[in-house]
Amino acid sequence: MFKSLSIICLAALPLLAACASVPEERIAVPRAQATEKQRIAYATVALRNVSLPTYAAGEAIFTADETGRLRDNGGLLWADDPSRAMTLELARHLTGITGARVASEPWPFLDPAAAEVEIRVEDMLARADGTFQFSGQYFVATEEGRDRARLFDLTTPIAGERTPADLADARARLVRDLALDVVQRGLK
């Protein structure tokens, strides 16, 4: 019995060592600057929580290799819940670009918003070719009945050595670019 227990413990040591050898590192997304200012047709905009694909909704940062397979970057995590963080980033950008009163759900004001935006992300990937891709669809519902549905497919280069900070910077630029797209094609 002691011999078989010793063999099991010895076999488990490499697994335990592998788990312990990957230190957890959290990556904060910097704030990308949006200098554009544009008027929109709505004074108030409600932003629903951004819907992300399963691999992008968790804390782990996945990248696509040359074959298109998604790889977990062991121990590399986003600093905040991606859906929450992107929703707040988008609300900040939409407010800054338009000057409108923008808030994420649940809507915190007594009067209903004049427009409501919902974003569903299909792909959010750092690719092996050195680009970060962000694609999906957004919807704008308004009290006036001018509802819209728009597809988006945005790509930006990952600058530098493709470090975690470079990935976070690329993601920040794409969220800003998505906010500009929503303003220009969805809220005018």
UniProtKB/TrEMBL annotation:
What InterPro entries does the annotation carry? ABC_trans_aux
**Signal peptide start-end:** 1-20
Q: Which residues form the ABC-type transport auxiliary lipoprotein component domain?
A: 30-182
- Alphabetical keyword list: Signal
- The entry's protein name is ABC-type transport auxiliary lipoprotein component domain-containing protein
Q: Which organism is it from?
A: Roseovarius tolerans
